[in-house]
TrEMBL record, chain A:
Coiled coil: none
One GO molecular-function entry: RNA polymerase II general transcription initiation factor activity
Keyword Transcription regulation belongs to the record: yes
Protein known as: Transcription initiation factor TFIID subunit 6
Pfam family, one: TAF6_C
Organism: Eumeta variegata
Domain of life per record: Eukaryota
PANTHER family referenced in this protein's UniProt entry, alphabetically: TRANSCRIPTION INITIATION FACTOR TFIID SUBUNIT 6 (PTHR10221)
GO BP annotations listed: RNA polymerase II preinitiation complex assembly
Gene Ontology cellular component annotations, sorted alphabetically: SAGA complex; SLIK (SAGA-like) complex; transcription factor TFIID complex
Alphabetically ordered keywords of this record: Initiation factor, Nucleus, Protein biosynthesis, Transcription, Transcription regulation
Family of the protein in this entry: Belongs to the TAF6 family.
Gene3D superfamilies attached to this UniProt entry: Histone, subunit A (1.10.20.10), TAF6, C-terminal HEAT repeat domain (1.25.40.770)
Subcellular localization: Nucleus
TrEMBL record, chain B:
Biological processes per GO annotation: transcription initiation at RNA polymerase II promoter
Biased composition (Basic and acidic residues): 259-269
UniProt name for this protein: Transcription initiation factor TFIID subunit 5
Keyword Lipid metabolism: no
Length: 455, 649
């Protein structure tokens, strides 16, 4: 609180005193008595809180607790308040009525017999000591026990406003590598800010870590993979390695889509998932690599060697979920992420009649139309899944109007000869039913209810 | 004259005090005050005197405001060389005007005064002002902490000779000088010093005490801040040395090649050192000698620290103890950790694979040959026991635990106003020291054992010896809670830090105060002496390093940045790095080597060296939501820190 809005003489109002008096059975309290009481109670309360602060400080806390007040009362030779034990802060509720406003704390009645019959609560864990290195020779190791070297907010700021980094003086507070004598001197003598070319130098340990993690993630040992993914999802301080990781994922997807290596694509998507789940990372700067990779895994015409046998549908589902997670996390009004992703999927569903109706049909649109006419069923499946993950509103606007056209394509494929096509069409039909059913039900609900009421 | 005016009552009280019964009766009759109506004002004498001298201004509460305004204008318009010194006068005048108005029942005017001029007082007085402004009735003055402090003591203001004559002229020129003159006469002690007026920075450096600055004359006594001559202990080259190294896994894994080979003990004749027998110290026992030898051997392997060689930090996190663990201490050889809890218990952990062992039972002890060389080993239980042990006995939060230098005893102090001495061999309480009347905030061992000192809410610090159940000395003088206490490395002095924002140094031999140091702007929570004994660091929300020779601050660290209070402070064993642990979950390392160098080289103008803390901060290490409760440098200069994990928020 700044000095200007601090009032030196705050006090309880007469109204509160009267309310309190009522609650202890004094119906009418004279005004001057109430005022006298208000002043006195205010003074006593303030003195008690001031003394309670001492107990708070000596308990090395920054929050006043009920026990502090109790100790102060003891100090003043006043009987402490029994039965007020609350580990957290006590929220005040507000109520008004009859022209009066009151703040109160909620107290629920507890049924003792319920407590007696219930299973005894768990014994709280005993205090234990755990040691870790906070710093080794002045460098803070990036282990889960230490806070992330660059907080998520700082990473976010950096990606939103890269200039801010240049303006800041060498940040001593943030843990990183301490500048050695020579580097520090160079830095001090430099008067021109030159943008550093290689800002992503990795230490030997980080290089080793990168090698281990990437090998484990795409290797054959499932146990190691789980560990590696766990590390990607939990470890702080990975932000320095992020560019490499993202390039690894994007290159890996490019190669393995061509080779139709379903297993590796799944592993790579799981890496994306792990990175998205890491609380200390902010991925916005790397979306240009991640989104195409994920989109590829959703709508690619072929993801595996034997489309009729392998379950590439699961990968499409998983990637679609990732895409919606990315959209939810990183969509802003400047990058329009969700709109762009939606448009991407919607294009795959465009039917000829719709495009013809629109004005200004150019030659490019015509080729588009031709292409979408030929869109493989697998890609259609992916696009629909991708849209479905983005929510019912998207389904209503983009899938529902295409149902007739989709139905026609399905009819054709189901009656067709190709075994793979028939399987795909079956899957697509099943998926459409699953996706559309809740949306349609919601659209149709009001007349149903109305009918039931009139009957 | 039916109303009981304050001056009338004051006169009555005065009459009663001098036992002038007849006059009292006449006065009472004339003022038609019945016996029943008589209210004893029960005020301190100073207050009565000021009432009696000031009673004629009582009728005009408006004159207070205008008088303060005039004083402010005079100070603002005076020359810069006087201005800053004179401006220290504003706060005490303001406070006593407020108290005066309250005393005369002009509550309205008092509140107006504080609303109008309160916000412009120095920021470090705001807390006091908030506390003082709760007093709005004259019967609240008696019994209120801060109001009593102000009315019973004189506020010290230091002025140069020229500034004080300026002030005198101003007071004489006033039409109604009585208000300010009365306050200055009755409540303010003007210390006039020769020499030029001080600058703003100089004034600010020492301002901040609850009663203004320390008086220079009080810091004239010589302080023997040198270290004691160490008793000769051969560097026993025990064969167990190699084995012992493997037992301590917490030491840095790779040994630094740079070892301090030319480590020697202090030169024999330090002019600042007190004679070894100034304070009687107990004879060293055999086991203690062995321990000392070990310490010296360890010290010879110490890593030299500096700005380019920062210490490694091992952090001990207390899990599942949010809001429960209060204090922690690590014993000198870094093998044990003790933690005091809010729920009155004390827990001791071993930090090495060696478990905590108890002594054998009495029957078994009888069978042991007392003459055997390894009797100390034999008395202990053979079976390994637990990795931690809990000590129960207190009945309130434990605010400090401390291992004795030879790690056989443990002290703890608590809200229940007792200090307990625990045996780390029997794992029971040995003695309960009663003496403090309220909560005991701090207890510390003498570096030589045997003695310990405690400080508490009763505004007194006490010196004890383990074999006496009553204190040997009581150090009284602080105006508010004594929040922290510490023995000087040579055991001859005790430093105390208090909520009255002063740090004081007391002589254990005479029991007198030898230094009073002002400059802190907030209550002081922790103290630390440098290894050489000359410097004292104290921390509240800012860290100040004091030179004990002069009693003046040598450096102020982190005044702007630290908003959360610092509760842990420790010097590295080679006196090069100061580490501070703060409640905002950071450990900061300060370059003490250059602080002491600059302070000694530019002693003449030492005061201008303040506030350059930016360049002294070496590094700051954040922890994961774990406020730091304790810091400790091992004998080899590894920094150990203890904190409680408060969960992710």
């Amino acid at each position: 609180m700044s000095d200007s809005d601090f009032a030196y003489s705050t006090s309880l109002s007469m109204d509160s005193i009267k309310v309190i008096a009522e609650s202890v059975g004094i119906a009418v309290l004279a005004d001057d008595a109430a005022e006298e009481l208000a002043n006195d109670v205010t003074y006593r309360l303030k003195v008690i809180v001031q003394d309670a602060m001492k107990f708070m400080h000596h308990s090395k806390r920054q929050k006043l607790s009920i026990s502090d007040i109790d100790h102060t009362l003891k100090l003043k030779s006043i009987e402490p308040q029994y039965g007020f034990i609350q580990s957290d802060s006590l929220p005040f509720r507000f109520a008004s009525g009859g022209g009066r406003e009151v703040y109160f704390t909620e107290e629920k009645e507890i049924d003792l017999s319920e407590i007696l019959s219930a299973a005894p609560p768990k014994i709280p864990l005993d205090v234990s000591v755990r040691a870790h290195w906070l710093s080794v020779d002045g460098v803070q190791p990036t282990v889960p026990e230490n806070p992330p070297p660059l907080s998520k907010e700082a990473q976010k700021l950096e990606s939103v406003d890269p200039i801010s980094k240049l303006n800041k003086p060498a940040n001593k507070d943030a843990a990183g590598k301490p500048m050695c004598g020579k580097a520090a001197r160079l830095k001090a003598s430099e008067s021109v800010h030159v943008k550093q070319l290689a800002t992503h130098e990795l230490s030997v340990e980080q290089q080793l870590y990168y090698k281990e993690i990437t090998e484990a993630c795409v290797g054959s040992d499932e146990g190691r993979r789980a560990e590696a993914l766990q590390s990607l999802a939990c470890d702080p301080g990975l932000h320095e390695m992020l560019p490499r990781m993202c390039t690894f994922i994007s290159e890996g997807v490019k190669v393995n889509v061509v080779q139709n290596n379903l297993a590796l694509l799944i592993y790579l998507m799981r890496m994306v998932k792990a990175l998205l789940d890491n609380q200390s990372l902010y991925l916005e700067k790397y979306l240009h690599e991640l989104i195409p990779s994920v989109a590829t895994c959703i709508v690619s015409r072929q993801l595996c060697m034997r489309p009729e046998m392998d379950n590439h549908w699961a990968l499409r589902d998983f990637a679609a979920r990732l895409m919606s997670q990315i959209c939810k996390t990183f969509n802003t009004s400047t990058n329009n992420l969700q709109t762009r992703v939606t448009r991407l999927f919607a294009k795959a569903l465009q039917c000829p009649s719709q495009t013809n109706d629109e004005s200004g049909v150019g030659p490019s649109m015509n080729t588009n139309m031709k292409e979408s006419e030929k869109t493989p069923l697998a890609s259609l499946y992916g696009a629909i899944q991708g849209l479905a993950e983005l929510g019912p509103e998207v389904v209503k606007v983009f899938i529902l109007p295409r149902v007739r056209w989709l139905g026609e394509r399905l009819e054709g494929a189901l009656s067709g000869a190709g075994g793979a096509d028939r399987l795909a069409a079956g899957n697509l039909k099943h998926q459409l039913l699953k996706v559309l059913a809740p949306v349609v039900r919601q659209l149709r609900q009001p007349p149903d209810v109305y009918k039931m009421n009139t009957h | 004259m039916a109303e009981k005016s304050t001056p009338l009552l004051a006169v009555l009280q005065l009459l009663r005090k001098y036992n002038l019964k007849g006059t009292e009766e006449i006065l009472r009759k004339e003022a038609s005050l019945g016996d029943a109506e008589f209210v004893n004002l029960d005020l301190p004498d100073v207050e009565i005197a000021s009432i009696l001298t000031a009673h004629h201004t009582e009728s005009d509460p408006y004159s207070y405001e205008s008088a303060y305004d005039a004083l402010k204008k005079f100070i603002d318009s005076s020359l810069d060389i006087y201005k800053y010194e004179l401006s220290t006068l504003l706060y005490p005048v303001f406070v006593h005007m407020y108290l005066g108005l309250v005393l005369y029942d002009h509550t309205e005017h008092a509140l107006n005064l504080v609303e109008k001029f309160g916000p412009e007082q120095e920021d470090y007085y705001q807390d006091d002002l908030k506390r003082l402004s709760t007093v709005t009735k004259k019967d609240q003055i008696k019994g209120n902490n801060i109001a009593e402090i102000y009315s019973m003591n004189k506020f010290v203001v230091q002025l140069s000779r020229d500034a004080s004559s300026q002030l005198k002229r101003f007071i004489h020129e006033q039409k109604t000088p009585s208000i300010i003159l009365n306050i200055i006469n009755n409540h303010i002690q003007l210390e006039v010093h020769d020499g030029p007026g001080r600058t703003q920075a100089q004034v600010r450096a020492t301002a901040g005490g609850i009663l203004g600055e320390a008086v220079k004359n009080e810091n004239k006594t010589k302080v023997y801040y040198g270290l004691l001559k160490e008793p000769d202990i051969q560097m026993l080259t025990a064969p167990t040395e190699d084995e012992e190294e493997e037992e301590t896994p917490d030491k840095p894994k790779k040994k630094k090649p740079k070892k301090d080979y030319n480590f020697v003990r202090k030169p024999k004749s330090d002019p600042n050192a007190p004679p070894n027998d100034r304070i009687p110290l107990p004879e060293l026992k055999e086991a203690e000698k062995i321990e000392k030898g070990k310490a010296l051997r360890e010290a010879s392997k110490r890593v030299q620290l500096g700005p380019d060689a920062l210490p490694s930090i091992c952090f001990y996190t207390l899990l599942n103890s949010a809001n429960n663990a209060i204090c922690a201490d690590i014993c000198d050889d870094s093998t044990m950790l003790a933690v005091g809890f809010q729920n009155s218990s004390v827990k001791v952990w071993t930090l090495t694979p060696n478990r905590l062992r108890g002594m054998k039972s009495a029957e078994k002890l009888q069978d042991i040959d007392k003459e055997a060389g390894d009797v100390l080993v034999r008395i202990m239980e053979e079976r390994d026991r637990d990795t931690n042990r809990t000590l129960y006995g207190h009945s309130g939060p434990v605010y400090r635990v401390g291992f004795d230098p030879y790690k056989t005893l443990l002290l703890s102090c608590s809200e229940d106003s007792t200090i307990r001495l625990w045996s780390l061999q029997l794992w029971t309480c040995l003695v309960v020291y009663r003496g403090h009347t309220w909560a005991v905030w701090d207890v510390r061992w003498s570096p030589h054992g045997h003695y310990f000192a405690s400080a508490g809410h009763d505004r007194a610090a006490r010196l004890w010896a383990t074999d006496h159940h009553q204190p040997l000395r009581i150090f009284a003088g602080h105006l508010a809670d004594v929040d922290c206490i510490l023995f000087h490395p040579n055991s001859n002095y005790i430093a105390t830090g208090s909520s009255d924002r002063t740090v004081r140094l007391w002589d254990c031999l005479t029991g007198t105060q030898v230094r009073i140091m002002t400059g802190h702007k907030s209550p002081i929570f922790t103290l630390s002496f440098s290894a050489c004994g000359r410097w004292l660091a104290s921390a509240g929300t800012e860290i100040i390093i004091w030179d004990l020779g002069s009693g003046l601050p040598a450096a102020v660290l982190g005044a702007a940045r630290l908003s959360a209070p610092t509760h842990a402070l420790v010097f590295s064993r080679d006196n090069t790095v100061l580490a501070s642990g703060c409640l905002d979950c950071t450990i900061k390392l300060w370059d003490f080597g250059s602080i002491s160098e600059e302070a000694t080289s530019e002693e003449a103008e030492s005061n201008t060296m303040l506030q350059k803390d930016e360049k002294y901060l070496l590094r700051s290490f954040p922890t994961k939501n774990s406020p730091i409760t304790s810091l400790h440098f091992t004998r080899r200069n590894l920094l150990l820190a203890v904190g409680t994990y408060e969960g992710s928020s």
